[in-house]
Amino acid sequence: MREDLARAGLLEGQVRIPAGCAIAAIVATDGKPMSGHDIITSMEPMRERSSGLGGGFAGYGIYPKYADCFAFHFFFDSRDSRKTTEAYLEQGCEVVNRELIPIRKMARITDEPLIWRYVIKPHRSVLSRLQLDENEYVVRLVMHINTSIDGAYVFSCGKNMGIFKAVGYPEDVGRYYRLEEYEAYQWTAHGRYPTNTPGWWGGAHPFGLLDWSVVHNGEISSYDANRRFIEMFGYRCTLQTDTEVITYIADYLLRRQKLSLQETAHVMAAPFWSTIEHLDMRDPEGARKRAELAYLRKVFPSLLVTGPFSIILGFNGGCMALNDRLKLRSLVAAHKGNRVFIASEEAAIRAIEPDARDIFAPAGGVPYIVRVDGVEGGLA
Amino acid sequence: MGETIQLEDCLGERFIGAGASDARIEIEGIPGNALGAYLDGACVEVFGNAQDAVGDTMNDGRIIIHGNVGDTAGYAMRGGEIYVKGDAGYRAGVHMKEYGDKRPVMVIGGCTGSFLGEYQAGGLIIVLGLEAGRKGRPIVSNFPCTGMHGGMVVLKGDAVDAGILFPPQVDVRVVDAADCALIAPFVRNYALFFGADGDDILQGPFTLVTPLSHNPYTRLYVAN
User: Fold this and answer.
1) Residue of B141, B142, B164, B166 to mutate for A, most A C-beta atoms under 10 A
2) Tally of CB atoms within 10 A around B200
3) Whole-prediction pTM value?
């Protein structure tokens, strides 16, 4: 597709390409580590959902040695932007480790930025001076770097997890980052087919903030309404694509407002008022549900996400898959033994587990939540 | 019918049988989206599940799925027959239409997601909900027949009593099987393909949904 556009004298972004993306996840509910091999294989049958303009993965549990530290993954445009960022980081954090993220050079992945990993720990004295907990401090740090340091982008900043993304097809991106060398109890993945915004490294999915990561198929009609609201709380949308805002909504509702995953789903993909009104008031459970759903719609109207979407929100200890309330994008789930599979297409699941059982499609607006035994979630 | 083509180990390949007019295609594995799109007379049989947009805009022929289908099965279908042994996802039969002797039929043995027959303009959709009770699901989820202005939807059982809500622009009647004799041959086909008892399925009440007007939008833009 990229080649076709180049021949026509058009740059991606100057022409609108209607299509979908691909998403997938594998979760070992017993917490057993899995290499990145299977999640890459899972993306292969969905190649036509991507365009080669973005692919990415998130792995959870990959940095057990640094489980108490934040693992920052950076794209730098130049050595200067890296040095500026490093100096800024060192003002408030101990840099426990710094290294180039290992990659495998390949012809299909080009124009790469400098890709670095910084393992950091905010200084306790800084946190107490600023009266911030470490999560809030890290969020502010990331927002500052992404908006104020030219040519520096933090694209992953969670504990014991990491995002790996690039411009390319997802299966190439997975091999580029040598994901078979990492061990995670949960992987999520994305193949991008950008429709309205540029296909660049920072715009590939997953998007991350702290340990939240989001992969998304769809487009958000409410993007600007959501962005205006969320930017009032210090979040800054800098990555030129709509999915970013979902990540910040998740952080705001789950971490700062301490909503549950269910409640968060009912804000982002709220049922229609007509559906809420038809809940049975004679039934005490119906009455309670009706009050709760109406409350969430009234308190957070600006965080209703409209337009077609299927997303997988990853976090330490599990993930949540969610469709828009009209279910305008596909999403199926299945399981086998201690592994749960989620994907845009059943073929993606069958590619790695031909005998996966109980294939089902969660209804629009109804979250499908998977949790991992023995892994503390970043949630109340 | 022309030659028989057997496909094994399918894994998400799109557009299988697209536009085919004279063949029998038998599929093992999981075919990709838009299976049998624009089908024009061929017969496609899948021994398992199928993904989204089965029979998209098909014109003639038959698709038989021994499993479940994803969203938008029979999208804008204009002729031929689709039989699904199990469940269908959202928007089954969206924009189905008919003209002259072209009258598409879709039979779904299980339950369907929301927006069944959305904007339906013609043809016949039959939903049997055969295992609805066991799965604890309604035969059809929210907003069936939204924007319907032609054709017919038939649901097994008394859907009104089951609490299914329909939009105001459709007429909903609960009838005996004898009152909707036109479904019998298609239900018998379903029974034949999937080894069920047709007479048994045809017992008991059915819910018949038809639009109140064939042209509800006549007065929307101009008074004519």
Assistant:
1) B142
2) 10
3) 0.93
pLDDT in tens, A263-320: 999 999 999 999 999 887 778 888 999 999 999 999 999 999 999 999 999 999 999 9
Residues 6+ apart with CB under 8 A from A218: A20, A21, A307, A308, A309, A310, A311, A324, A328, A329
DSSP string, B197-219: -HHHHT-SEEEEEEES-S-TTHH
A352: closest CA of chain B, how far (Å): 11
Minimal CA–CA distance to A61: which of A37, A36, A40? Answer: A36
Q: Is A93 annotated in the active site?
A: no
CATH 2.160.20.60 for the B15-212 domain, yes or no: yes
Q: Which is it for the CA torsion A171, A60, A35, A114, positive or negative?
A: positive
User: Is A204 within 8 Å of A75 (Cβ atoms)?
Assistant: no
CB half-sphere exposure, A112, CA atoms < 13 A: 22
Q: Is B115 on the interface with A (CB under 8 A)?
A: yes
- Three-state DSSP string of A19-83: CCCEEEEEEECCCCCEECHHHHHHHHHHHHHCCCCCEEEEEECCCHHHCCCEEEEEEECCHHHHH
**Centroid of chain to Cα B153:** 9
Q: Which helix (H) or strand (E) holds B135?
A: helix B132-135
Residue with tokens 């269908």: B88
Task: Locate the chain B residue with the closest alpha carbon to A279.
Answer: B163
Considering only CB atoms, A48 lies closest to which of B11, B14, B114, namely: B14
Query: Which domains are delineated in chain A?
Result: 2-269+304-371 (3.60.20.10)
User: Domain spans of chain B?
Assistant: 15-212
Gap between the Cα atoms of B112 and B88, Å rounded = 5
- What distance in Å separates the CA atoms of residue B208 and residue B199, rounded to the nearest whole number? 19
Interchain CB distance below 8 Å, A347 and B165: no
DSSP A294-340: HHHHHH-GGG---SSEEEEEEETTEEEEEE-TT--S--EEEEETTEE
Q: How do residues A356-370 score in pLDDT, each as one tens digit?
A: 988 999 999 999 999
